[in-house]
Amino acid sequence: MENSISVAGLVKRFGQTTALDGLDLTVAQGEVHGFLGPNGAGKTTTIRILLGLQRADGGTVRLLDGDPWHDAVSLHRRLAYVPGDVTLWPNLSGGEVIDLLGRLRGGLNPARRNELLERFDLDPRKKGRAYSKGNRQKVGLIAALASDVELLLLDEPTSGLDPLMEEVFRQVIAEEKGRGRTVLLSSHILSEVEALCDRVSIIRQGRTVETGTLTQLRHLTRTFISAELSTPPNGLASLPGVHDLHVEANQVRLQVDSAQLDTVLRQLTSHGVRSLVSQPPTLEELFLRHYETEPAK
Amino acid sequence: MTAFTGTGSLARLIVRRDRVLLPIWMLFLAVLPLSLASGTATLYKTDAERQGYIDDLGSSPLLLLFYGTKPTDPNLGALIFWRSATGMVIMALIGVLFVIRHTRVEEEAGRRELLGATVVGRHAAVAAALVTMAGASLIVGVLVALGMMSQDTPAAGAFAMGLAWAAAGILFGAIGAVTAQLSEGAGAARGIGIAALGVAFGLRGAGDVTTGLSWLTWVSPLGWIYNVHAYAGDHWWVFGVIAVATAAVTVLALRLSARRDVGAGLLPPRLGPASAAPSLSSPLALAWRLHRGSLYGWLVGLGVVGGLLFGGVAKTSADLLADNEELTQIMQRIGGRSGAADVFLAGTLGLGAIAVAAYGISAALRMRTEEAALRSEALLATGVSRLRWAASHLVFAFLGPTVVMLVTGLAAGLFYGATTGDIGREVPRVLGGALVQLPAIWVLAALTVAVFGLTPRRAPAIGWAALSVCVVLGQIGAALQLSQALLDVSPFTHIPRVPGGPVTVVPLLVLTVIAIVLVVAGLAGFRRRSVPVT
Question: Which portions of this protein are annotated as coiled-coil regions (chain B) (predicted)?
Fold first, then answer.
């Protein structure tokens, strides 16, 4: 088994609206996969289909070599899920919910449970209604992370966590990856994605618009260059991949597609570089480009 | 008075939020005595006719329990004030629920915090809920009074009656405001508030039914309101008592509210166990935790108290009927004293069954609550199949009412047997009367399950609507002279009148099969559809 999750051409409609419109997603075994997209892009719907809670209207879905709709119960014993908004039973304590969910998944590791309670600094004795948003999220995370499962499906799991807990979460996920678990992490926090994810899929309006390693994605972005040359440059404008070119005597400012960086730098050095400032591509830039809604057609 | 700053704005917010619900119940209650008065006026024209009617109704302790002591004057207004007394209990119930809805529910949802951070005084939230409830109650009171005056009853009596209705809403609104301060959860606040109303009702009822215990009526706030006796003395001074009590309870609510933190209750939240007991490892174990409170409540409320009351009153009511000469002939036809007691028992067990059907529906609707709160999603994402999850709740929707009816029948049978001196004979007969009701109860719970599985968003509306239809058909269907085909819509119509009547097995079997088919359809739908539907 190579891929833990393979989704191709997934379609899901709710009445008139099309939530998923040919979505593709491949998560290899043992990787941490970032799942990004603006609100309403279809991330939660995708995860619910992977859980067999909703049925796809089209496309193929394979999860841990099974069919999520038909084999739901046996697959659920091998995965753990944390929703973006964990809701608890008001009259059950956090510790009770952790134990219950763990047992229903087929058992949880008590030592790991206690370690996580300590690291996330959670009082398991409080009743469900008494927890704040962040603490409810911790209950869901601990229940999932203390279970001995192959795959973690996390839907914006850190919403409401403070930066300190966010850091604990990153350490724990890094450890899980070290143990060979596969993680699908839906998130909006780019630093989290950069720190944790091997590969990333960006979806928008129910379709996958970008997928690959972070390095590959960086290649899709542009580098900003500002240089002072010995002689006024020429021929820059005709080079492929150059954008927003400004030339004032010996001063040059431009943006270049990462794939064309080498060619442009050769051209610049041929004019004698006196000083050079270059800003690496930021993921933010890439994400923002994809998050912005398309103008009405 | 900065503590009350913002009360007006919050009251307007309440009116805005309840702009549909508020007029509906106000109009419903305002029209109730009017329609009763116009109907009664055409049927009973003279004082003598009305006195006969009052004596007929008053011969049943069960009716005295609801209506209070018989009016001392048989004029139309006094008869209507007496007959529509249940409307005042409904006003009181709405008062409790309305004030909790706009105080504790808001606080639990965190919306009070949002408003509390604006320019709003400490007392404003409680005050706004009370002011709105008082305003709505007074409008209902004025409408009731105007409606009664339109039936040519004296103005003084009409206004005493309207004020009594308004007072029920206002006084119990204030009591609701106190119970809203006690617990963190709105559910517990409602429970305490309704229990307080139940105690008030029980004290008043016991005082009105039992000779020698009439002082009990004066212990109960509901008793004061009944004792206004509009059109039959117009005891205006009682309003003085009610006003003083309302003021005292309101001050208590405001004091309690000012003493505690926003979001907290006066009863401190208890910490739970740090880890789950080994038994909490299945959906059924979780369902037990979620359902046990209401199961206990129904067992105690209806099973024990109701059973003892039904059983204990059965013989008294038969004896009272026997003293009534006009009814003796009818009594002979239905089998003498024990026959009358049987009719009473079959009737009250039928009433109890309607209440238990409400329990079955609410237990079935628990699945919908869990789904809408996204809690079922968390469970269904573990190794729990949909059927196993649903079954854990269905156990309570079907076995819960069964156990409650069983205990009701046993308690009523034991008590009735004790009064007649033949426990061995009465227990199986009365228990049978309770158990024959079960198929009808199951049909209503099963209908709710079917709707939940097939079109979940409509489940609460259709479940409760079905129960309302059964109540209307069962309680006033015959009086409205509805056709038998229409009456047959209610499953309760097909339940044999036991004890006393013959047990017909076929309708019971048919109802049980209908219930099974509905559950199967619901589960089949639930397995196919998306979860959660929000």
Answer: none
Q: pLDDT tens digits for A226-269? A: 999 888 888 888 888 888 888 888 899 888 887 788 888 888 88
For chain B, give the longest Cα–Cα distance.
Answer: 72
Cα separation, B176 vs B342, whole angstroms: 39
A36-74 confidence digits (pLDDT tens):
888 888 999 999 999 999 999 999 999 999 999 999 999
Cβ of B383 and A74 within 8 Å? yes
Domain boundaries, chain A: 3-217, 222-280
Which of B104, B183, B261, B275 to mutate: most A Cβ within 10 Å? B275
Minimal Cα distance from B280: which residue of A? Answer: A100
Residues of B in contact with A81 (CB under 8 A): 378, 381
Say which CATH class A222-280 falls into: alpha beta
Q: Which residues of A touch B289 (CB under 8 A)?
A: 89, 91-92
CATH of A3-217 among 3.30.565.10, 3.40.50.300, 3.40.50.720, 2.60.40.1080:
3.40.50.300
Whether chain B has a CB inside 8 Å of the CB on A233: the answer is: no
Specify the higher pLDDT residue, B172 or B57: B172
Residues 459-518 of B with CB under 8 A from A: none
Closest CA to A81 of B386, B370, B380, B527: B380
B531 to A53: CB separation less than 8 angstroms, yes or no: yes
What's the sign of the alpha-carbon dihedral B235, B237, B238, B239?
positive
Label residue A296 by pLDDT band (50, 70, 90). very low
Q: Note the maximum CA span of chain A.
A: 76
- The predicted structure's pLDDT at residue B492: 93
